[in-house]
Amino acid sequence: MSDFAPSVSRLIDELKRLPGIGQKTAQRLAFFLLRSDRDQALGLADAIREAKDKIRECSVCNNITDTDPCQFCTSATRSRKTICVVEEPPNILAVEKTRQFSGLYHILGGALSPLQGIGPEQLKIKSLIERLKGGTVEEIIIATNPTAEGEATAVYLSKLIKPLGVRVTRIAMGIPVGSDLEYADEVTMMKAMEGRRDL
Amino acid sequence: MSDFAPSVSRLIDELKRLPGIGQKTAQRLAFFLLRSDRDQALGLADAIREAKDKIRECSVCNNITDTDPCQFCTSATRSRKTICVVEEPPNILAVEKTRQFSGLYHILGGALSPLQGIGPEQLKIKSLIERLKGGTVEEIIIATNPTAEGEATAVYLSKLIKPLGVRVTRIAMGIPVGSDLEYADEVTMMKAMEGRRDL
After folding, report:
1. Which pTM does this prediction carry?
2. Which ipTM value was assigned to this complex?
3. Whose CB among A86, A136, A165, B23 lies 3.0–4.6 Å from A91's, allowing a Cys bridge?
């Protein structure tokens, strides 16, 4: 005999599939949903369904969106001169939070990783090159992750795009603001030294 | 302009309502759901809906259940002589995990807490007394939480039930197995001394 009613077990199993959610957390969430009022619990169920039904990829920048093209690509207030290239849609948020960037985005859908069989064809690179053809874009900011894959992707893109006469830049790597040099790993420290600026 | 498409924002907001889920985790879960295949994401939505539709309270023990009476109350293999009294349905799991208890359960729906306006009428105490009337029940094990409220509830129940000629016991409080005396708080240590047994 299972300790839970079948529909409770099923809910716990479904919750356990989520990243970072183990048995205990899944149980806690399931009992929370069972205790909460019907509208609230079904609100979550409906939100999942609605998101899966409505969300598609923007045909311009590959961001996830309700409308095609997405809110960034159709915005009248954003500059068309700069495109920030990121690996995945959530990365946009990190850039947006700075409130310093008002250009457009391009989502690659990952980074080059020969070991995982991800080559240039698996990424949305062709459509990025297409976007440069109008001559409006003056700068590509490459904001892929500071990992081996992200770096390789940045180098690959820069070799591809520079010959087209577009400026290619890479976000700075270095010591995070508010941290302590004591805890910096040697690679980050090396990048911080390399990227030093005149005061 | 929001950083996310409206249906993504809604999904994040709904996930944030869950206990222990903040903005960052909600975003991570939302993007996971958006990336995962349709069946898997909708599996969670359907499980929530199914649980909310099917789950009711057992009319005997107040456990959450698909069927009324619940799997414990209808089980042919469980002894009807002992009832373990707990505060909430998830507490049953802690008892079941021991594999030592094969009696029935009774869920109070909380513990006495005058400060929060929870008196005996707000708990499922009347139905517990009803269950004792047949004369089958020989022992009530009170497994409310080892808190002030749980203790008060245990004392209240014991005063109510003992006169009916039913044995009333309370789960032991003491040092958890595998821990270190060094880290035991004084109240737990006091309970451990009080509850000492002959070797």
Report:
1. 0.73
2. 0.73
3. A86
